[in-house]
Write a structure and sequence with these properties.
This protein has 169 residues and is of the alpha+beta class. The chain contains 5 helices and 7 strands. A 5-stranded mixed beta sheet has the order 2-4-5-7-6. A two-stranded antiparallel ribbon has the order 1-3.
Length: 169
C-alpha cells in the first residue's frame, strides 16, 4: 500500500513538473513572438472551466465561487488565454487572506475577486518579469500582460471593501 502511495505521489510530482515546463515553453514562445495564434470564438464559461482544470490544486471548485451573470463569447487563442485566466486564478487563491476567490462573468468582463490588502505598488510594476514577490517567480502577471497585449485586451485593478478586484476587459 505504501508503495502505491509513493507511486501516486511521484506521478503527481511529474505531472506538475510537466505543467511547469509547458508554462516555461509558452513564456518563451510569447516573449520571442515565435508562434501562430489560433483565434476562435469561445464562451468565457468554457475558458474559465479549462483554466480551473490547469490549476495545480486538488478540487479547485472548493476554493472558487463562480457567478455567471451573463456569459459571452470571446475571440481568443485558447491555449494562451486559458493561461491568462489560470494565472489570475492562481494569484487570487495564493494571495487571498482566506484562500477563496469569486469569479464573475458579466457584461463582456471577467472579474476575479479575493479578500486581501491592496497591492503595495501600481499594477504596472507587477507586469515586469521577475517582479519580486514572496510567493512566486514574479512571472504570473508578466505572462498575463504579454498575452492580453497580443489579444488587445487589458487587465484592470481596483481595491474595494478589503477586496482585490482584477478585471479582464
Amino acid at each position: 500500500l505504501e508503495d502505491e502511495k509513493n507511486k501516486a505521489r511521484m506521478h503527481s510530482i511529474f505531472e506538475r513538473l510537466n505543467l511547469l515546463i509547458d508554462e516555461f515553453a509558452k513564456i518563451e514562445k510569447i516573449t520571442s513572438k515565435n508562434f501562430d495564434l489560433t483565434i476562435k470564438p469561445y464562451k468565457m464559461s468554457d475558458l474559465l472551466e479549462a483554466s480551473e482544470d490547469m490549476l495545480m490544486i486538488e478540487n479547485p471548485k472548493r476554493l472558487i465561487t463562480t457567478k455567471i451573470e451573463k456569459d459571452y463569447s470571446l475571440d481568443v487563442d485558447f491555449e494562451l488565454f486559458t493561461l491568462v485566466v489560470k494565472n489570475l486564478l492562481d494569484n487570487g487563491i495564493k494571495y487571498s487572506t482566506d484562500k477563496l476567490i469569486t469569479v464573475i462573468i458579466d457584461d463582456n468582463k471577467l472579474k476575479i475577486i479575493n479578500k486581501g490588502e491592496a497591492l503595495k505598488e501600481p499594477l504596472e510594476n507587477y507586469f515586469k518579469p521577475f517582479h519580486t514577490s514572496k510567493k512566486g517567480l514574479g512571472l504570473g502577471l508578466y505572462i498575463v500582460k504579454s498575452i492580453l497585449d497580443i489579444h488587445q485586451m487589458e487587465l484592470e485593478y481596483t481595491h474595494e471593501d478589503g477586496q482585490n478586484i482584477f478585471t479582464v476587459v
